[in-house]
Amino acid sequence: MDKLIINGGQPLQGKVRISGAKNAALAILCASLMAGDEVVLENIPDISDVRVMIDIIKYIGAEVNWLSNSSLSIIAPDVIVADPPCALVKKLRASNLLLGPVLARFGFAKVSLPGGCNIGVRPMDLHFKGLAGMGAQIRLESGFAVGHISDRLKGARIYLDFPSVGATENIMMAACLAEGQTVLENVAKEPEIVDLANFLNCLGAKVRGAGTDVIKVEGVPKLGGCVRYAVIPDRIESGTFMVAAAATRGRLVLENVIPLHVEPICAKLREAGVQVDEDDDKLTVVAGGKLNPVDIKTMPYPGFPTDMQSQMMAFLSTVEGTSIIIENIFENRFQIADELIRMGANIKVEGRMAVVEGVAGLYGTKVKATDLRAGAALVIAALMAKGQTEIYNTHFIDRGYHMLEEKLTNLGVEIKREHCLT
Ligand SMILES: CC(=O)N[C@H]1[C@@H](OP(=O)(O)OP(=O)(O)OC[C@H]2O[C@@H](n3ccc(=O)[nH]c3=O)[C@H](O)[C@@H]2O)O[C@H](CO)[C@@H](O)[C@@H]1O
Ligand SMILES: C=C(OP(=O)(O)O)C(=O)O
């Protein structure tokens, strides 16, 4: 176990380069199992979720080699081990994305129900409904999702009751190898879905409409390889640094960003009185003077992302006035409030609503991350706080932030990591 020790109170100043998107990279790693030839992926973040996913796909039989600290070569096998070990699968949420590709390519899959952060109930009913709609026999057996297909999946019309990111991805991937056309309605529109669709098309799939409510996939018998595919920048890492700059009343230039993907975050920061300027793949965030409280409701993209809610809560805890946050996606994402309260914040949680009364400042103390974004929020709180903060459970933060300490050190932060027993 490690802890992060941060001496706060300084505005963030300087430039930071954003890494590749965790959620796009994880889905694309799963999709690589469907490739008939070598795939070279670039802009892959070297974070613990990616490392675990690589271990899983290697176990399944893929040959995976790092070509640099952010690029990988993958050669998927013809014969696989279709039941990766539960201990690995349970380490991350995105392992649920193995089901569609493995089933579609190899006809059988047995994948433990995924693990990941405890941010709420995370069923897979929509994934199962979609795959079953294409002719797969899917059942839940002692904590495993087990799927069979007798020949090839069959294209179908599938309506999602909720635009689930994972269900959209799983069904879209499987549909690439189905016979005939699949029409997926009420799908998720997140940028990671578009990135995955672009990658699949690079392998020879025929996916249209990603990024809209309806995705149409014309199935092909097999997919090829891809000489080079660069994953999009991480919009949640971008948002985290933007909010950290605002929270510390700093001045930060973010490089390797797609401004459109962070528009919901830019909009809320501007509403709070933070200056956000866009220029191609760069964003400049400048905060100072009096800021305004804002209300936030998390929604599927292009709404405000649930993965940025905790970081905004940390920021708003020192903005004078009352901010209201409504969490519509994951019911346990307010666990962070207790830790912020330890640091002096004034937050009341009532079901899916949190009321944040801005205080003059936070103070450093010992706190623990309860999930990945709660960890990011505590880092932001620590950057603002007077004195020293020790953040425990850093393994959550390591799931999703590439070189966090190095990046913050370059921005003038005093931060170090120490091994600890708890
Ligand atoms: C690896 C990855 O990409 N993770 C992201 C993905 O998670 P994930 O793909 O798990 O999130 P979903 O979009 O599927 O979940 C959203 C909501 O749908 C519900 N649901 C989902 C599937 C299902 O079969 N049945 C069902 O009821 C969930 O309980 C949740 O309330 O999207 C979330 C929502 O933007 C993000 O917070 C996660 O960072
Ligand atoms: C919830 C998240 O990820 P996952 O779905 O991988 O748990 C996240 O990235 O904030």
From TrEMBL:
<dbReference type="GO" id="GO:0071555">
    <property type="term" value="P:cell wall organization"/>
</dbReference>
<dbReference type="InterPro" id="IPR036968">
    <property type="entry name" value="Enolpyruvate_Tfrase_sf"/>
</dbReference>
<dbReference type="InterPro" id="IPR013792">
    <property type="entry name" value="RNA3'P_cycl/enolpyr_Trfase_a/b"/>
</dbReference>
<protein>
    <recommendedName>
        <fullName>UDP-N-acetylglucosamine 1-carboxyvinyltransferase</fullName>
        <ecNumber>2.5.1.7</ecNumber>
    </recommendedName>
</protein>
<dbReference type="GO" id="GO:0051301">
    <property type="term" value="P:cell division"/>
</dbReference>
<feature type="binding site">
    <location>
        <begin position="22"/>
        <end position="23"/>
    </location>
    <ligand>
        <name>phosphoenolpyruvate</name>
    </ligand>
</feature>
<feature type="binding site">
    <location>
        <position position="93"/>
    </location>
    <ligand>
        <name>UDP-N-acetyl-alpha-D-glucosamine</name>
    </ligand>
</feature>
<comment type="function">
    <text>Cell wall formation. Adds enolpyruvyl to UDP-N-acetylglucosamine.</text>
</comment>
<dbReference type="InterPro" id="IPR050068">
    <property type="entry name" value="MurA_subfamily"/>
</dbReference>
<comment type="similarity">
    <text>Belongs to the EPSP synthase family. MurA subfamily.</text>
</comment>
<dbReference type="InterPro" id="IPR005750">
    <property type="entry name" value="UDP_GlcNAc_COvinyl_MurA"/>
</dbReference>
<keyword id="KW-0808">Transferase</keyword>
<feature type="binding site">
    <location>
        <position position="329"/>
    </location>
    <ligand>
        <name>UDP-N-acetyl-alpha-D-glucosamine</name>
    </ligand>
</feature>
<keyword id="KW-0132">Cell division</keyword>
<dbReference type="InterPro" id="IPR001986">
    <property type="entry name" value="Enolpyruvate_Tfrase_dom"/>
</dbReference>
<dbReference type="GO" id="GO:0009252">
    <property type="term" value="P:peptidoglycan biosynthetic process"/>
</dbReference>
<comment type="pathway">
    <text>Cell wall biogenesis; peptidoglycan biosynthesis.</text>
</comment>
<dbReference type="GO" id="GO:0005737">
    <property type="term" value="C:cytoplasm"/>
</dbReference>
<dbReference type="GO" id="GO:0008360">
    <property type="term" value="P:regulation of cell shape"/>
</dbReference>
<feature type="binding site">
    <location>
        <begin position="122"/>
        <end position="126"/>
    </location>
    <ligand>
        <name>UDP-N-acetyl-alpha-D-glucosamine</name>
    </ligand>
</feature>
<dbReference type="Pfam" id="PF00275">
    <property type="entry name" value="EPSP_synthase"/>
</dbReference>
<keyword id="KW-0573">Peptidoglycan synthesis</keyword>
<feature type="modified residue" description="2-(S-cysteinyl)pyruvic acid O-phosphothioketal">
    <location>
        <position position="117"/>
    </location>
</feature>
<keyword id="KW-0961">Cell wall biogenesis/degradation</keyword>
<keyword id="KW-0963">Cytoplasm</keyword>
<dbReference type="GO" id="GO:0008760">
    <property type="term" value="F:UDP-N-acetylglucosamine 1-carboxyvinyltransferase activity"/>
</dbReference>
<dbReference type="GO" id="GO:0019277">
    <property type="term" value="P:UDP-N-acetylgalactosamine biosynthetic process"/>
</dbReference>
<keyword id="KW-0670">Pyruvate</keyword>
<keyword id="KW-0133">Cell shape</keyword>
<feature type="binding site">
    <location>
        <position position="307"/>
    </location>
    <ligand>
        <name>UDP-N-acetyl-alpha-D-glucosamine</name>
    </ligand>
</feature>
<feature type="active site" description="Proton donor">
    <location>
        <position position="117"/>
    </location>
</feature>
<feature type="domain" description="Enolpyruvate transferase">
    <location>
        <begin position="7"/>
        <end position="408"/>
    </location>
</feature>
<keyword id="KW-0131">Cell cycle</keyword>
